[in-house]
Amino acid sequence: MTPAALELLGVTRHFGSGATAVHALGPLDLSIAPGSFVSVLGPSGCGKSTLLRLVAGLEAPSEGRLRRGGEALDGPSRRVGVVFQEHVLFPWASVLDNVLLPADVYGLPRAAARSRALHLLERTGLADFAAQRPHSLSGGMKQRAAFCRALLPDPEILLLDEPFGALDALTREELSLDLSRLWGELGRTALLITHDIEEAILLGDRVVVMSARPGRIRADFAVDLPRPRGVDTASSPRYQEIKREIRALLFQRA
Amino acid sequence: MRQLSTPLIWLTLVLAWEGAVRALAVPAWLLPAPSAIGAMGWEWRAELLANTLVTLRETVLGFALALGLSVPLAVLVAFSRLAQRVVYPILLGLQSVPKVALAPLVTLWFGIGEWPKIVIVALVCFFPILVNIIAGFDAVPRAMLDLMHAMRASPAATFRRLRLPMALPYLFTGCKVAITFAVIGAVIAEFVAAQDGLGYLILMASAQSQTPLAFASILMLTLMSILLFRLIEMAERRLVDWKP
Ligand SMILES: Nc1ncnc2c1ncn2[C@@H]1O[C@H](COP(=O)(O)OP(=O)(O)O)[C@@H](O)[C@H]1O
Ligand SMILES: [Mg+2]
């Protein structure tokens, strides 16, 4: 049996100590199968970003263990791509150079990386903006560029921390459908952090619902909607049913 | 309209100056009229130019020396925790020393040639440049560092791709402050001990009540200062062509 792409065992995270200590997360167990898309849904401040930073290896857990592909996770990996809530594009570099950043950092062959970058920009409708600086792009375009950058080295695992959080509703939906399509083609493992129910269902094979801080897993819904998903998916009866179930859970008095 | 208003204001001021000096018959050794300054400046043009070049050379060399020393030091402070702990407090302490007060001592240590002037210019330029670059290296947002960290970028890659471009606008801010100080430093160094340079010329002219010549020298200094500032601004516009 192939090991889980990501595995969390009894993971907790505290910040600070003494009277000002904050228990941000856990204890939490989660296993993500290779090639699956898992959405983590939770209210703001419940420790979602903390969870992602732990999985990305940017922080260490206070207790518990994490595994990546069956091996102990003890730091960031070049087989993992991260898209943060803020696009974090470098304002001094062109869109193309921003997308090429991982190639530069990893020392990938230039010509191949360049053609892949241009292909990704093409696929996300940014081909005409390759030479522009990020400040001349709209919010949605910046986030697309950040996706391209994360996808450039073809990561096995994609981590997304509310990547559509700062966008307007229309752009959000358009971008999440684009992402769904792109992910379908790549067949990689993805973990999406979000506070948006529709987004979580539309993109995920599973929706993991978290409690308020300290974030724990309250429920784990399987999303058995056919792929590829499109604008029609949201109007299907099964989608509505899953959405009702999740809403019922979120708004029930505990 | 706006483009025209500044020269017009200056022209008006100069004319008012000329008119007031003539109307009140102020003696030239006390306050010369602009026309007298112009005439004297033209008469002494060869000397003015030669001494301007002397001061310009001291200023540029001192500034370059400060730049050459502060950039590597800032990199060291940015990279090494030890340097941060040891060097930074010392630098912050030294920053408060009024550098021009050291001018007589520097002359004592470095003799009477060009070097004491260059050293004093470098001293006054050093701190504004250094402090600004260090601030630039520190101005990198946490999210950008997280991005580099998530890619396991080496410290060298993080420096080259992130910290350096981030610090460049700060470097220019420091340079613009420093170049103005540099001209002041050069003149004060020349006041202390010199056989040439605009500071020397101002001192000599004042001592001999050749006030129009002193004013002409000050005008040259001002023009030099503006020119140097503009050159740095031009370089900045070429190298920092991005908006945050
Ligand atoms: N570096 C930190 N230091 C102290 N507290 C933190 C830190 N990071 C997060 N927290 C706290 O942990 C909790 C969860 O934060 P976060 O993971 O950002 O939540 P979410 O992303 O779900 O909005 C919050 O109460 C936050 O204040
Ligand atoms: Mg968050």
UniProtKB/TrEMBL annotation, chain A:
Keyword Nucleotidyltransferase recorded: no
InterPro entries reported for this sequence: AAA+_ATPase, ABC_transporter-like_ATP-bd, ABC_transporter-like_CS, ABC_transporter_ATP-bind, P-loop_NTPase
One Pfam family named in its UniProt record: ABC_tran
One GO molecular-function entry: ATP hydrolysis activity
Residue intervals of the ABC transporter domain: 6-237
Keyword annotations of the record: ATP-binding, Nucleotide-binding, Transport
Family: Belongs to the ABC transporter superfamily.
Record's protein name: NitT/TauT family transport system ATP-binding protein
UniProtKB/TrEMBL annotation, chain B:
Location within or outside the cell: Cell membrane
Membrane topology: Multi-pass membrane protein
Transmembrane segments: 60-79, 86-112, 118-140, 170-193, 213-232
Domain annotation ABC transmembrane type-1: ranges: 52-232
GO BP of this protein: transmembrane transport
InterPro entries associated with the record: MetI-like (IPR000515), MetI-like_sf (IPR035906)
Keyword set, alphabetical order: Cell membrane, Membrane, Transmembrane, Transmembrane helix, Transport
Entry annotated with the keyword Secreted: no
Main location: membrane
Gene Ontology CC terms: plasma membrane
Pfam families linked: BPD_transp_1
Entry's family note: Belongs to the binding-protein-dependent transport system permease family.
Protein name per the record: NitT/TauT family transport system permease protein
Lineage, top ranks: Bacteria, Pseudomonadati, Pseudomonadota, Alphaproteobacteria, Acetobacterales
